[in-house]
Write a structure and sequence with these properties.
The complex is a heterodimer of chains A (about 260) and B (about 220). Chain A has about 260 residues and is mainly alpha-helical. Chain A has a domain of about 170 residues: Four Helix Bundle (Hemerythrin (Met), subunit A) (Up-down Bundle). Chain A is about 75% helix and about 0% strand. Chain A contains eight helices and no strands. The longest helix of chain A has about 45 residues. Chain B has one domain. Helix content of chain B is about 85%, strand content about 0%. In chain B, helix 2 packs antiparallel against helix 3. The chains are: A mainly alpha (about 260), B mainly alpha (about 220). The interface between A and B is medium-sized, with 21 and 22 residues.
């Protein structure tokens, strides 16, 4: 049981936090959406299209944030062989991929009226697309092995190698002359964005972070419970093993083999 | 160092005796490049405009196609397991295998590239830069590709998977490789692009053997 010692602490802790985080996320999402869609002023150049930004920018932040989280979990699982880090990395990947895809889609919807094109091969857009490919590669690699442990380890190594793309995405607007506008919130010398627009943006960012936390916890719990059920089933099979005789030998070997493989 | 030379000689000898591998890579490169004039039409000025990009993309795909065999056969017959047990550092052995891979795939591609450049009607000013850029770029492709090739050992559908893993990481080489040739064609110095490519090569030379060796140790565990 000591294998589940740390995960049990995780389950208890997140179980206690969950209702609060859910409530906070719902409130933040409602407030953020109200401010973003109704309560904030119309941009003098972009008109109502500016409201896309309140989804687009937080989703982009989360896309990067999830990748950093995934790479850190990968590093932790490689260094300390912590089983929970593996599960967290695996659970983060689809969420991050969804945020990245959402960024690209909303950006495209915004680009059509503003830039007059759905897509440009600009450094920021392209590096974000590569980020999506890295997520998809990670998901494909992790699921490509019969032994899930081996998949997680290979995925951790890939996540770390791919982390080189994260600073490229972040600084692409500074390093290259791009069509995409430069950073206006997290920059030296304070944000250049008006407070009436900054407030809904930050609220939405926190709401997205809360959403990520909720989904992460749910996915990790699911995985832990699935493992526990499997372990219980296998130990149950083990105890009720029929007395070895003739054709039962093979069956008993199979069960023993499975139980051994899953520890 | 002896181990490095030994593994390099072994892989080169295997490649030469089996022969077909290098030829296949070059043939794939030529066939892929030949597809473009059919796709975009045979107008000389259009082909000249896209020549550097087409050659680089084809080289990238050809290099990727040959990745699977870097470790796959050794993994299947157990050689890789013995290599991890050898007293020589696995990182060095990996470097030897990557060197052999580059000599049997990267080098033939560099020789074939100017031929395809002529066929695509590229301006002569770009030839020298194209070859220098490929000389710097293809070893980086082999090094980065080795990570992917090691990660997929024992995976289902490894061949398709390696493309999804490796191609995103190849993009910087493609950008600066094609950019260098483009600069030379415009009559500007390609030094900046070539220097960045040199940086990519050095970075992958420093990091890739360790990542690859790590992935191999996991695969044979």
């Amino acid at each position: 049981m000591h294998r589940f010692a740390k995960p049990s602490v995780f389950l208890k802790l997140t179980g206690a936090m969950m209702p609060w985080v859910v409530a906070l996320t719902v409130i933040l999402t409602a407030a953020g959406l109200y401010l973003a869609l109704i309560g904030s002023p119309v941009d003098y150049q972009q008109g109502n299209t500016v409201r896309i930004m309140y989804i687009h920018v937080p989703a982009a932040w989360m896309g990067l944030f999830c990748y950093v989280g995934m790479a850190l979990c990968g590093a932790m699982s490689l260094i300390w062989k912590h089983p929970l880090a593996d599960i967290c990395a695996r659970a983060t990947a689809p969420v991050g991929a969804t945020f990245t895809a959402l960024t690209l889609i909303t950006g495209s919807l915004w680009g059509e009226p503003m830039w007059g094109t759905w897509w440009v091969w600009d450094a920021r857009l392209t590096s974000m697309l590569i980020l999506l490919f890295l997520y998809l590669g990670y998901i494909a690699l992790v699921n490509a092995f019969d032994d899930p442990e081996r998949g997680s380890k290979a995925g951790s190594a890939l996540a770390l190698v791919g982390a080189i793309n994260v600073p490229i995405v972040k600084f692409s607007v500074d390093w290259w002359n791009t069509l995409h506008q430069p950073a206006s919130v997290a920059r030296m010398g304070g944000p250049t964005i008006d407070p009436s627009m900054l407030a809904p943006l930050l609220i939405m960012a926190f709401a997205f972070t809360g959403y990520y936390f909720i989904v992460l916890v749910l996915r990790v719990r699911l995985e832990l419970n699935q493992r526990r059920i499997r372990a219980l089933q296998l130990s149950g099979l083990f105890d009720e093993r029929p007395v070895a005789s003739g054709d039962h030998d093979e069956l008993a070997y199979d069960q023993g083999h499975n139980a051994g493989a899953s520890k | 160092m002896n181990a490095f030379v030994a593994i390099l000689r072994r892989d080169l000898r295997l490649a030469l005796r089996q022969g077909a591998d290098s030829v296949m890579v070059v043939a794939f490169f030529i066939v892929t490049t030949t597809l473009f004039p059919f796709g975009v039409g045979p107008e000389a000025n259009i082909l000249a405009r896209i020549a550097s990009g087409v050659i680089w993309v084809s080289a990238l795909l050809a290099a990727m196609l040959s990745l699977e065999r870097v470790f796959q056969t050794d993994y299947e017959d157990g050689t890789l397991e013995l290599l991890t047990l050898s007293p020589a550092p696995l990182e060095l052995l990996v470097l030897g295998k990557v060197c052999a891979h580059w000599l049997t795939t990267g080098l033939p591609l560099i020789i074939a590239a100017p031929v395809m450049a002529v066929m695509l009607n590229m301006d002569q000013d770009g030839f020298g830069t194209l070859m220098i850029a490929m000389l710097i770029g293809t070893p980086a492709l082999s090094l980065i590709g080795a990570i992917g090739a090691a990660l997929i050992l024992g995976a289902r559908r490894g061949g398709v998977l390696v493309s999804l893993l490796v191609l995103p990481l190849y993009i910087p080489v493609l950008i600066f490789g094609a950019g260098a040739v483009e600069a030379a064609l415009l009559g500007i110095s390609a030094q900046a692009q070539l220097q960045i490519m040199g940086a990519i090569l050095l970075l992958s030379l420093a990091a890739a053997p360790f990542a690859t060796a790590h992935a191999i140790r996991q695969a044979v565990e």
